[in-house]
Design goal:
It is a single chain. Strand 1 and strand 2 (140-142) form a beta hairpin. The protein has twelve helices and five strands. By secondary structure, the protein is of the alpha+beta class. It folds into three domains: 1-59, Ribosomal protein S4/S9, N-terminal domain (Ribosomal Protein S4 Delta 41, Chain A, domain 1), CATH 1.10.1050.10; 62-103 and 202-219, Ribosomal protein S4/S9, N-terminal domain (Ribosomal Protein S4 Delta 41, Chain A, domain 1), CATH 1.10.1050; 109-194, Structural Genomics Hypothetical 15.5 Kd Protein In mrcA-pckA Intergenic Region, Chain A. The radius of gyration is 18 Å and the shape is globular. The protein has helices at 9-15, 32-35, 42-49, 53-58, 62-76, 81-93, 98-107, 110-116, 123-131, 165-168, 170-175, 209-217; strands at residues 135-137, 140-142, 154-157, 183-186, 191-194. It has a five-stranded antiparallel beta sheet with strand order 2-1-3-5-4, with helices on one face.
């Protein structure tokens, strides 16, 4: 399984906004974006001095806007290009709007569901916990973060992992996070159930699925 091993804060700077890729750290003064809110590299700094990121982005072509929309979504969910493109092809074959199908696929990934349930502070942390085998789905242990969940699937912490310090202290953290309505969460038992696929209003409103569809349609 391929993954990005470079500094993720540069991804936020490249997109010009916080993508909250490092969990709670993004809400503290230690967040790198607070100190350097310009694109990485020499040209990013020069652009900020010459009128700011907004002026530079105002000259973007249609293709540039489509590319940025695709890259932003891909980085938020922590996916490589090949995997993201495969999800797009799957969404084309499903009934309904291609863009909404794509977002629902991304949201139904196991690592994202664990993050949405409040069992991890970021998708990257959720992915790590899954690969270490700390979760079970429908009573069976899994170490595949990309597993796509469906209605009725139950996610729980593996019995052998419940005594670990992280999971003992997880109740307090989970209570501070609000789970979306398409997920049913029992904080006391630390169990979550997928009730249905999320509706568009329940997915990040800053994602522009139409531009993503346009990007892949022209290739």
């Amino acid at each position: 399984m391929s993954k990005r091993i470079g500094p993720v804060c540069k991804l936020c700077r490249r997109e010009g906004e916080k993508l909250f890729l490092k969990g709670d750290r993004c809400f503290t003064p230690k967040c790198s974006f607070e100190k350097r809110d310009f694109a990485p590299g020499q040209h990013g700094r020069m652009a900020s001095r010459g009128g700011g990121r907004g002026n530079r982005r105002g000259r973007e072509s249609d293709y540039g806007r489509q590319l940025r929309a695709k890259q932003r979504a891909r980085r938020i969910y922590g996916l490589m290009e090949r995997q993201f493109r495969r999800y797009y092809k799957v969404s084309l074959k499903r009934r309904g709007l291609t863009g909404l199908n794509l977002l629902q696929i991304l949201e139904s990934r196991l690592d994202n569901v664990i993050y949405r349930l409040g069992f991890a502070s970021s998708r990257a942390q959720a992915r790590l916990l899954v690969t270490h085998g700390h979760f079970i789905v429908n009573g069976r242990r899994t170490d595949v973060p990309s597993m796509l969940l469906k209605d009725g699937d139950e996610i729980a912490i593996r019995e052998g992992s419940q005594d670990l310090t992280y999971f003992k202290e997880l109740n307090t953290f989970a209570e501070s996070r609000t789970a979306p309505e398409w997920l049913n969460r029992d904080i006391k038992k630390m169990v979550g159930v997928v009730q249905r696929l999320p509706e568009r209003a329940e997915i990040d409103g800053s994602l522009n699925e139409q531009l993503i569809v346009e990007y892949y349609s022209r290739r």
